[in-house]
Amino acid sequence: SKHVIKNILWITAKDFTVERGQQQIEELISTWDIHESWLHHSEFLEEEELKDSKRYHYRACWGLPTRRKPIPRATASVYFVIVISKLKPDTAPVEVFYRLESSRQIRRPEQCQFREKWLQDIIENKIVCTERL
């Protein structure tokens, strides 16, 4: 069965603001198939000026709080970059990439469906590491 990759309509470069970028990341996250017990918060990290683009960096930090452990033992972060090209017209949509904290692999939302298992793996690895210490 072919998985449909859910994506959102990204704003144009001329309509972009830091706040709007964060709203759009939240909109993207809402399309991900993740159990509601996962909680996250997102934040803007920094703006980066490059020769042919501006990059806006964000982070979404995920955890699995429970009644017995309201503060999760470990969290998993997903880092997002919204790129505004200086070469394309300002009516072109922004480009969006993300990567998991434990990985160098850069993913594009329109090419890859997010998997809850990635968050679980990061958290399990962290818990295993802290138990070894």
Automatic annotation (TrEMBL):
Single GO MF descriptor: protein kinase A regulatory subunit binding
InterPro entries given in the database record: AKAP, AKAP_28
Signal peptide coordinates: none
Record's GO cellular component terms: cAMP-dependent protein kinase complex
UniProt name for this protein: AKA14 protein
Species this chain originates from: Chloropsis hardwickii
The organism's taxonomic lineage, starting at the top: Eukaryota, Metazoa, Chordata, Craniata, Vertebrata
Gene label: Akap14
